Inverse folding.
């Protein structure tokens, strides 16, 4: 148990001033601007927006600057800020079919309507350090090619048309909101997806990996991965109709898994789904793997006792702000608490010694 | 261009672009604030599997403002991000677009903004087109 302590104000204030100085670094070097972070650390910005659960690139960049690049600390700052904002409403569900894609690939079909677009990817690089960047080397501009207008339908719909994949049921049911109501178990898929999309990338990556290595036996293919921009539309009560209130970058991953069929369902493919703010390919894939593993019950599969199948384990531990709060709080003063433990140990030893003496 | 279209265009235009074009158009506007500009959040929804039931993806920051102009029209401004000034300018534009200033604003603000959005989208599409890939499947040897 943590018991409050008093005092120490001066040392705390001085510690924070030192922290400010450390964050700034050597003053003879120019300070980082928010625009630099937003423009050149954009993937870190994406992560802070997704796990901070607030799409605002400028604030995410500010949080990264303030936290000296400690992304979990930055996410913490964003989570704290978002609780101060009034909620204007809820958007209509975004239409990822109409995404303007900067990247769109499929590992299941080679020739797809709209084509495969590699986009700005780390794939196929040789992971060699680029020493030109050390010397402030200027980079070449991207190549342009005149675009052919074409629609990019979701690839899994091709399987859907043949009835080979499990259908998603579109309902207008209002989903439970984790930021407003506490998490209760069993959780439905809407709640699980909300928890996963704001969950820790590293935690989901490890869990997703575990499903591939045999814990929950799910061999997944990436049916489609797309990154790009979508419009967000909301109904405005004072207007009586909906308008686009902004445009956000998102990453979407749909995995395809084999399914042997059950008593009620024929053999078919099933889906895992990942949808994340920003350009976050790895997170979206990991999220899709974990989403699929958590669906064992509704698909009538066996519980193999794997961590990724355990809803309580996954949902209660994927939030890095909850996790860091509890893990890190044990460094704060626990003097009273520890004092009682110390006394207990001393008493036990004393009693044992007395007992020994008496038996002699 | 109808009201839904202009509000949608203005909401996603950058604050700098809106300000530059507003200043350049030199429009004056007598207005009173009926709902002061405020920063808030909108919960964005996604769909399970892209097409299924909705779920909550996370919030985005949005600023809104409502004004009434001397001619009696009410304008509502919504803008992505946290610029109160932009939300107020959009509210003014929304009110003025309901008056005989429509043609003027269409020409001096909305059309240029629309062009900027199109240029940005074209630039992304052009870079994407250059990375369109055709993979060949090779037959794997048996030994």
């Amino acid at each position: 148990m943590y018991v409050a302590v008093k005092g120490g104000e001066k040392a705390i204030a001085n510690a924070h001033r030192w922290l400010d100085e450390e964050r700034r670094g050597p003053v003879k070097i120019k300070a980082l601007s928010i625009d630099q972070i937003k423009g050149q650390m954009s993937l870190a910005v994406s992560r802070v927006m997704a796990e901070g659960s607030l799409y605002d690139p400028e604030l995410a960049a500010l949080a990264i600057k303030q936290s000296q690049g400690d992304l979990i600390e930055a996410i913490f700052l964003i989570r704290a800020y978002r609780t101060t904002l009034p909620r204007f409403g809820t958007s209509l569900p975004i239409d990822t079919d109409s995404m303007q894609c900067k990247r769109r690939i499929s590992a299941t079909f080679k020739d797809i309507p709209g084509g495969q677009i590699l986009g700005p990817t780390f794939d196929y690089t040789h992971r060699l350090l680029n020493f030109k960047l050390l010397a402030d080397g200027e980079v070449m501009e991207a190549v342009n090619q005149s675009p052919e207008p074409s629609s990019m339908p979701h690839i899994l719909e091709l399987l859907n048309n043949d009835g080979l994949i499990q259908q998603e049921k579109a309902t207008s049911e209002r989903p439970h909101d984790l930021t407003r109501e506490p998490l209760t178990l069993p959780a439905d898929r809407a709640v699980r997806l909300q928890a996963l999309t704001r969950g820790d990338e590293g935690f989901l990556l490890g869990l997703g990996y575990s499903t591939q290595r045999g814990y929950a036996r799910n061999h997944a293919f990436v049916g489609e991965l797309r990154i790009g921009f979508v419009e967000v539309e909301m109904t405005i009560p004072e207007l009586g109709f909906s308008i686009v209130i902004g445009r956000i970058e998102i990453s979407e991953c749909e995995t395809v898994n084999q399914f042997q069929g059950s008593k009620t369902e024929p053999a078919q493919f099933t889906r895992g789904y990942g949808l994340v703010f920003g350009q976050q390919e790895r997170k979206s894939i990991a999220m899709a793997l974990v989403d699929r593993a958590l669906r064992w019950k509704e698909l009538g599969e066996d519980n193999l006792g794997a961590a990724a199948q355990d809803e309580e384990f996954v949902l209660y531990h994927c939030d890095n702000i909850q996790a860091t709060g509890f893990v890190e709080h044990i460094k704060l003063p626990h003097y009273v608490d520890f004092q009682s433990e110390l006394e207990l140990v001393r008493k036990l030893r004393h009693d044992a010694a007395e007992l020994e003496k008496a038996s002699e | 261009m109808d009201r839904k279209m202009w509000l949608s265009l203005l909401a996603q235009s950058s604050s700098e672009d809106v300000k530059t074009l507003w200043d350049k158009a030199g429009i004056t506007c007598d207005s009173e604030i009926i709902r002061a500009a405020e920063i808030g959040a909108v919960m964005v929804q996604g769909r399970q599997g892209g097409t299924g039931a909705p779920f909550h993806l996370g919030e985005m920051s949005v600023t809104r403002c409502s004004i009434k102009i001397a001619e009696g029209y009410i304008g509502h401004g919504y803008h992505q991000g946290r610029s109160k000034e932009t939300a107020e300018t959009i509210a003014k534009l929304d009110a003025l677009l309901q008056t005989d200033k429509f043609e003027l604003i269409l020409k001096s603000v909305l059309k240029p903004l629309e062009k900027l959005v199109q240029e940005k989208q074209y630039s992304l599409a052009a870079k994407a087109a250059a990375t369109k890939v055709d993979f060949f499947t090779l037959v794997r040897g048996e030994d």
Notes: Chain A has a mean pLDDT of 91. The longest strand of chain A covers residues 241-259. The beta strands of chain A are 54-55, 87-93, 100-105, 116-117, 220-236, 241-259, 268-277.
